[in-house]
């Protein structure tokens, strides 16, 4: 197991304390600690890829684990914010719909010996979702944004999330025909 893959796996492990701190109680200190753990986890997403590319350690396992750990971290934290009534059910549904569709596309491609790495839109989607999580943390800790602003940001992130999913679908339609 190389260093980038260990960093990626640490993102999954860090999801647990981040989620527990977010949902355990109603306290600014717990929300702040959860945010710190989330930031550390999000930074592993930045560093694992950079280290892998710089040291020539990019692997199919790393590409798979990176996508999986991103989904676990982001979906779990959004679920935590859903329990606090800070995000909408429809938003979480669209996010899970997109991730399930893209995972299905990746499974189909894998059965044909292909690996589909994240593209620009997938990375932009992840960055926008993580930024939205950051905004939600700022809001539960310091109440910086009014509900309309949160809704507008939620809507923009949802549009980017869906656009990213449909981009993967359109770029990979040939896998459903058995083509390469």
UniProtKB/TrEMBL annotation:
Transmembrane domains' residue ranges: 29-52, 72-97, 118-142, 148-170
EC number(s) from the headed UniProt entry: 2.7.8.5
UniProt keyword terms in alphabetical order: Lipid biosynthesis, Lipid metabolism, Membrane, Phospholipid biosynthesis, Phospholipid metabolism, Transferase, Transmembrane, Transmembrane helix
GO MF annotation, one: CDP-diacylglycerol-glycerol-3-phosphate 3-phosphatidyltransferase activity
A GO CC term assigned to this protein in UniProt: membrane
Domain of life: Bacteria
Example GO biological process: glycerophospholipid biosynthetic process
Main location: membrane
Subcellular location: Membrane
Root EC class: transferase
Signal peptide: none
Membrane topology reported for the UniProt record: Multi-pass membrane protein
Entry-linked Pfam families: CDP-OH_P_transf (PF01066)
Family: Belongs to the CDP-alcohol phosphatidyltransferase class-I family.
Protein name: CDP-diacylglycerol--glycerol-3-phosphate 3-phosphatidyltransferase
Source species of the chain: Mesotoga infera
């Amino acid at each position: 197991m190389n260093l980038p893959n260990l960093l990626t796996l640490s993102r999954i492990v860090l999801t647990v304390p981040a989620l527990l701190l977010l949902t355990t109680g109603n306290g600014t200190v717990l929300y702040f600690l959860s945010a710190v753990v989330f930031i550390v986890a999000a930074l592993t997403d930045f560093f694992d890829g950079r280290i892998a590319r710089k040291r020539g350690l990019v692997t199919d396992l790393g590409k798979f684990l990176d996508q999986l750990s991103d989904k676990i971290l982001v979906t779990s934290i959004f679920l935590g914010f859903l329990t606090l009534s800070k995000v909408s059910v429809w938003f979480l549904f669209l996010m899970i719909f997109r991730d399930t569709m893209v995972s299905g596309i990746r499974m189909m491609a894998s059965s044909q010996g292909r690996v589909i790495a994240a593209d620009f839109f997938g990375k932009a989607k992840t960055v926008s979702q993580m930024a939205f999580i950051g905004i939600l943390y700022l809001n539960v800790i310091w109440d910086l944004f009014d509900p309309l602003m949160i809704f507008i940001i939620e809507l923009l992130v949802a549009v980017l999330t869906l656009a990213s999913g449909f981009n993967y679908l359109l770029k990979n339609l040939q896998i459903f025909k058995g083509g390469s």
